[in-house]
Amino acid sequence: MGRGGFFALNSAAKAYVADFYAREDGLADTRAALEAAVTGTLESYAKGGKLLTAGNGGSAADAEHITGELLKSFRCRRPLSAAFAAEYERLFGGEPLPAGLEGSLPAIFLGGNFAVATAIVNDLGGEALFAQQAMGLCAAGDVLLCVSTSGDAKPLLAAMRVAKAKRCTCVALTGRGGGAMRALADVCIQAPAEETYLVQEQHIKLYHTYCAAIEAHYWGSCQ
């Protein structure tokens, strides 16, 4: 992914991003990187790829939060595609769709399988926690988004190296400076704070905007 992004946002996504930065002057320096992360993720989705996320501690909660906003509706209603509805009808005839079923985007949190995570830590060591899962789950063209307030978390750095060797795009969401993750990331979104809780407060605003822009690209302005 080029650092400027290369997949054009539609008008709904552009409008959401513009509105966010009009309200959040203090985060203005993050705009180019955030837009590049959005466009790179859209490019991956357009080619059949998926998003994987990872983080430690509080950032693990943020990484999982991101996948939730993409797997189900966040701000917009997500009607099922006509093609999916037709295929469901062809296969199952009069069997109704599950109540409430809606459109979704593929997103996987690498810390979600406790049995696998504890086996990796026990057998391979803590630094391999996300790297081993990236080894199995990352495919060329996917996006790995790693969340770290310091940008120096060793399990995340290890996962990014594995993902890049598998020809994935790496996005880092960090605090000011980017830490060691900055050099590995194709795009590094640096929240302009250093103290952990302040970085985390800015992270939620930034990744909500990332998720909302992606959703708006597919499902419109949500008005």
Which key features would you list for this structure?
223 residues; 9 helices; 10% strand; globular
Question: TL;DR?
Answer:
The protein has 223 residues and is α/β, with parallel strands linked by helices. 51% of the residues lie in helices and 10% in strands. It has a single domain (32-77, 104-219), classed as Rossmann fold (3-Layer(aba) Sandwich), CATH 3.40.50.
Mean pLDDT: 94
Distance between the termini: 31 Å
- Total count of helical runs of at least 4 residues: 9
| Tally of domains | 1
Kindly identify the CATH topology: Rossmann fold
What can you tell me about this protein's structure?
The protein is an alpha/beta fold and 223 residues long. The chain has a single domain (32-77, 104-219), classed as 3-Layer(aba) Sandwich (Rossmann fold). 51% of the residues lie in helices and 10% in strands. It has 9 helices and 5 strands. It has a 5-stranded parallel sheet, sandwiched between helices. α8 links the parallel β4 and β5 (187-190). The relative contact order is 0.20. Residues 1-5 have low confidence and may be disordered.
